[in-house]
Give the backbone structure.
Amino acid sequence: MAAATCACRPWGSLLGLLGLVSAAAAVWDLTSLRCNFGSFCECDFRPDFQGLECDLAQHLAGQHLARALVVKALKAFVQDPAPTKPLVLSLHGWTGTGKSFVSSLLAHYLFRGGLRSPHVHHFSPLIHFPHPSHMERYKKDLKSWVQGNLTACSRSLFLFDEMDKLAPGLIEVLRPFLGSSWVVYGTNYRKAIFIFISNTGGEQINQVVLEAWRSRRDREEIRLQELEPVISQAVLDNPHHGFWHSGIMEEHLLDTLVPFLPLQRHHVRHCVLNELAQLGLEPRDEVVQAVLDSTTFFPEEEQLFSSNGCKTVASRIAFFL
């Protein structure tokens, strides 16, 4: 989509947006807590698909599959006046490939308050569930938190980051909320959205993309059918993943596994140019080249994929300006 036809909602630099993810994860949202016990706050669910598709097209480098899958699933879900179950997405891929960025975009374009909306709930294992010995308390709290906030607003978004660092056993309390029952614990929950993010499956995705490159297949020819089985198996085989023995994979409660492909040199260049534009700076060849030269690529022989994707682009730009 050409930039001239887009109606992207302004927000400042991509670095600033991703910083909001960390800020949202740092504390339990007190506004949401108050919504559990009062009717003063209204849902601020205001989906803007044109803006979402515009930003995905402009800023999400190298992810044709993720972009198509997320938009298709989200549109079908939101446009259904009576969904039979919540939308459950699981984002997988190498670090820095855009998983957290996409989840931020969804919050930004679905809710008026974006990540600061009282109906967007972001969980980080190291912040919210740091002690495995407290797992029973965490289970009780998480169940109450989800139930209470869905009572306040059925159009709620729950983001679970770093699932491969989440102690197994916790997420199983979400099973009743993810299936196709009409009511759980007296709460209508069918319009909720759950997004789970992890690096698990990243190595398997990278291998599929590497083999495609070696076979001279175009990157855009890679389809979900090639990646879904290897991602699923990687999750099921990982005892450190939050889905381990939770029943969520086994009972097919996920609507879509969303693969994020490893980023190549031209994708990193795209990220550098995007960040410079977001900062209001003109593209400078020496800065772009310096960032690329300081980026590590793998495998050792091909030097094909960025080790950190676009994750460190913003900080590297600041260093070379």
Remarks:
- Residues 12-41 have pLDDT under 50 and may be disordered.
- The radius of gyration is 20 Å.
